[in-house]
Amino acid sequence: MADTVSKEKRSEIMSHVTGKETKPEIMVRKYLFARGLRYRKNVKQLPGTPDIVFPKYKTAVFVNGCFWHGHKGCKYSHLPSTNIEYWEKKIADNLERDERKTRELEKLGYRILIVWQCQLKPNIKIETLEALYHNIVNR
Ligand SMILES: [Zn+2]
User: Fold this and answer.
1) How far does residue 64's CA lie from ligand 1's centre (Å)?
2) 76: CA distance to ligand 1 center in Å?
3) How far apart are the CA of 67 and the centre of ligand 1, in A?
4) Which of 12, 43, 77, 78 has the fewest Cβ atoms nearer than 10 Å?
5) Ranges under pLDDT 50 in the chain
6) pLDDT for res 3
7) How far, in Å, is the centroid of ligand 1 from the Cα of 77?
8) Which of the 8 DSSP states describes residue 79?
9) Cα(100)–Cα(93) distance, integer angstroms
10) d(CA 87, ligand 1 centre) in Å
């Protein structure tokens, strides 16, 4: 079978499977730490185990891979051309889970901020991180 999953997608998929931190996640944390924000990571006590939680601001940040979380209209979210039904179902399940955990977190009084992996490409990441910082502290 032809391998149509790009290297980037593959590492995104693998990190999801193994639960390991992804590079984008680490980048976001480092930036916010340098700006003086303190956080907890991979908080298992909260619905959906948010990647980064800012207790002081009651804010949960998810760093979402575009493929795995089906980023709408994003070129990085295109499904592989083989096994399309498998991937469609997989991504649809993920979207449902994302929605459910968002609702549960909101019920607990949390605000949810999403950073998409495509927003962390080198040419735009500073703007993205800057905006995220302001979003967090201006609650
Ligand atoms: Zn995207």
Assistant:
1) 8
2) 6
3) 8
4) 78
5) 1
6) 56
7) 6
8) P
9) 11
10) 17
| Alpha-carbon separation of residue 53 from 7, 48, 105, 111 (angstroms) | 29, 12, 11, 10
Which tokens is 19 given? 């639960």
Q: Which two tokens stand for residue 3?
A: 């391998």
pTM of the model: 0.85
Contact between residue 61 and residue 71 where contact means Cβ atoms under 8 Å apart: no
User: Which domains are assigned to the chain?
Assistant: 22-137 (3.40.960.10)
Q: How many angstroms is it from 63 CA to the middle of ligand 1?
A: 11
Query: Residue 54 pairs with which residues in a beta bridge?
Result: 59
Joined together, the tokens standing for residue 96 give 């449902």
What single-letter amino acid sits at 22?
T
pLDDT at 1: 46
Gap from CA of 38 to ligand 1 centroid (Å):
26
Instruction: Supply 29's token pair.
Output: 């944390």
Residue 120 CA to ligand 1 centre (angstroms): 9
